[in-house]
Amino acid sequence: MEQTGTIFEAIGGFDTIDRLVTAFYKRVGKHPKLVPIFPEDLTETARKQRLFLTQFFGGPKLYSEERGNPMMRRRHLPFAITPSRKDAWLECMHAALEEAEIAEPYRTAIFEKLTMTAHHMMNTPE
Questions:
Q1: Nearest CA among 123, 3, 112, 34 for reference residue 74
Q2: Which family does it belong to (predicted)?
Q3: How far is CA 93 from CA 31, 61, 99, in A?
């Protein structure tokens, strides 16, 4: 497969994003620190994250086409994102990256990008 240099293509595109998001929300739905700020039914949340991560990692701009500018921090302001919730989110994502079998160096690159994003989302002290 011809690579044009995006993480999205390098990890295998939509199928890998789908595996990652499925593995992630399986954990989020059970995490005691995250359950209070996520809906009981994670179907729509996961669908939006698939769109966002596809775009975030260099794939088609599906999120923007459907929802406009991502403005992730603004979209997350209604939720109390504390340092411990940020850590819980990253813990779930780290495990999901392993379960989705994303190879290095992409696993680390993805986790670093998402760690920066998670820090930016914090909006509430403990």
A1: 123
A2: Belongs to the truncated hemoglobin family. Group II subfamily.
A3: 12, 22, 10
In a domain, 28, yes or no: yes
The span from the CA of 68 to the CA of 66, in Å, is 6
- Looking at residue 14, which CATH number applies to its domain? 1.10.490.10
Residue type, 102: I
Neighbours of 90 (CB within 10 A): 16
Is 1 inside any structural domain?
Answer: no
Q: How many domains does the chain have?
A: 1
- pTM greater than 0.85 (yes/no): yes
The Cα–Cα gap between 94 and 32 comes to 17
119 is in an annotated binding site: yes
Alpha carbons 23 and 100: distance in angstroms, whole number: 7
Separation CA 43–CA 124 (nearest Å): 26
In a domain, 77, yes or no: yes
